[in-house]
Amino acid sequence: HMRGTWFWKRLNLWMLRTCDAVTTKGSRVTSYLIDHGIPKEKIFNLNGSIDTDRFCLPEIEERNIDILFVGTFRTLKGPDRVLSVVEQLVRQGHQIRAVFLGDGELYSSIDTMIQDKNLQKYTTLLGYQDDPVRYFQGSKILMMPSVSEGLPTAMLEAMACGCVPVVSNVGNITDAAIHMENACVIESWSDIDAFSGAASILLTNPDLRRTLSLNGREMVEKNYTPEVQSKVVEKIFSYLT
Q1: Which of 141, 145, 159, 122 is nearest to 202 (CA)?
Q2: Mind giving me the DSSP string for 158-211?
Q3: CB atoms within 10 A of CB 239
Q4: Distance between terminal CA atoms of the chain?
C-alpha cells in the first residue's frame, strides 16, 4: 500500500511539472508543490467564488441555531466529534440547539448516539439540504473538526452569512479563518475540550461573536467574490498566452 502511494505521488508530481499551469486551493498546497519542484510562477491560487448576494448577512438577525454541522457523515469530517462537543456543553449547563446537515455512512450511528445520550432535546438531524443559506444565516457557529480539508466552500459560505467557524487547523483553512479575528482555529481535530471551550466562549460573548461574524463577512467580500476570483482566471490566461 505504501509503495502504491509513493508511486501515485511521483506520477502526480511528474504530471504537474509538465503542465502549462497549475491551480491550487491554498498556500499549504502551493508551498508543497514548490518544495517538490513545481515552478512558482505557474502555480495559481484559485479557490472558486462565493455568491455574496445569495450568501449574505440576514436582514433580521435571528440566530436560533447555536451549533451547525454541514458535511458528509464520515469520520474524516467528524460529526461524531461535534456530537461529543454538544454533549459536553449540555453537561456544562448550556441550553443549546445543534443542527446537523448532510448524510453518509455514520448517519444512523449518530442518530443512535443522540438517543443513547439523551440529546434529542438539543440535537436535530436534517439530512442533506440543497440550499443551506438559511441555516448559515440562522446559526451562530459552524463547527468543522475535520481531519483534512482544502479550503472548504461551506466555511466560506457560512462566513459570508455571518456564521462564525470553529475549525481544526488542517489543509488551507487558515488562508481564510484567522483565530480570534474571524474564527476560532483549534490546533488538533480531536481536541473535544478545545472545541467545546471555543464554542462556550462564543455562545456566552455575543459582542465577540458579532465582531468575528462581521470580520468574516468582510474577508469573504475582499477575497472570494466572483470579481476577485475572475482576476485570477485572467492571470492564468495571461500567463498561458
Answers
A1: 141
A2: HHHTTPEEEEES-TTGGGT--BTTTBEEES-TT-HHHHHHHHHHHHH-HHHHHH
A3: 12
A4: 41
Tell me, rounded to whole angstroms, the distance of Cα 168 from its chain centroid: 9
CB 25 within 8 A of CB 47: yes
Are the C-beta atoms of residues 198 and 145 closer than 8 Å to each other?
no
> Contact, 100 vs 122, CB < 8 A?
no
The pTM of the full predicted model, rounded to 2 decimals, is: 0.89
State residue 2's pLDDT score: 45
Burial class (CB in 10 A: 0-12, 13-18, 19+), 160: buried
What is the tens place of the pLDDT at every residue in 142-166?
999 999 988 999 999 999 999 999 9
Q: Rounded to whole angstroms, how far apart are CA atoms 178 and 154?
A: 16
Q: Which three cell numbers stand for residue 45?
A: 491560487
37-51 pLDDT per residue, tens: 888 999 888 887 999
The residues, any chain, with a CB within 8 Å of residue 154's CB and separated by 6 or more, are 70, 71, 132, 142, 144
* Cell, residue 81: 466529534
Contact 49, 176 (CB under 8 A): no
Cell (9 digits) for 170: 488542517
Handedness of CA 35, 37, 39, 45 (dihedral sign): negative
